Amino acid sequence: MEHILGEEWTIIPAGGSTGEAYYAQNNNKRLFLKRNSSPFLAVLSAEGIVPKLVWTKRLENGDVITAQEWLEGRELKQEEMKHPRVAKLLSKIHHSSELLDMLMRISKHPLLPEDILEDIKENERLFTNIDPWKQIYIAINYLESKLDEVRAAKHVVCHCDMNHNNWMLSRDDQLYLIDWDNAMVADPAMDLGMLLHWYIPKEDWKPWLERYGVEDTENLYTRMTWYAVAQSLTFIQWHRMRGDVEEAAQRTESLMQLMVNHGIWNP
Where is each Protein kinase domain found (predicted)? Predict the structure, then answer.
């Protein structure tokens, strides 16, 4: 990274689940750099969904480096996910034709529920020796049994990781949703299911969804639960693939609680 900016810049690794992320500083100038970030970052920036994109550079090896404003701020706390501004920003994302057009242009075909289920079943080996094994397969059987009920009439740009760590509140009180590496065109219930099941008490779902701008139908609840279970299984597989045994166990515990809450499994 130093050869891109110059020796006067200090480069500090910033982690990130995919790609490479860095903080860069030169006196009072600060940037957030990332290698091979989402190719529609420019549209996200123009829509005010992520911090402003400053420049993009393509390297000789084909890698693309993006630089964004480095904003002072913090991630949202779990209880802050209930705030109306979260519902408002997610609704803006899901209803953005510009985002959808861009993602479709870069060959992001809609992710269908049968595709998700197929991927989970193809990677069943990652559940080997997991405890409790029985509940994992009850969850998979649930996904299979409900597959015909979760066809979506509408597909939108989904972030696909509604973890509160990805919601950033800047010092000037601007809310952003960051880390778009896993974005897909999919049923909006994918994002809604994860967010509501993880952070919003069931009795608050109806007013939250009203602020988001959708009616709380039984079909929507079914789709949200289906995607919450599916994503839980996917996260368990991902952490086990990485060797994160403790995190996988925590995800498994959350999945079991989700199944109990919705009558999918009775201990």
Answer: 7-267
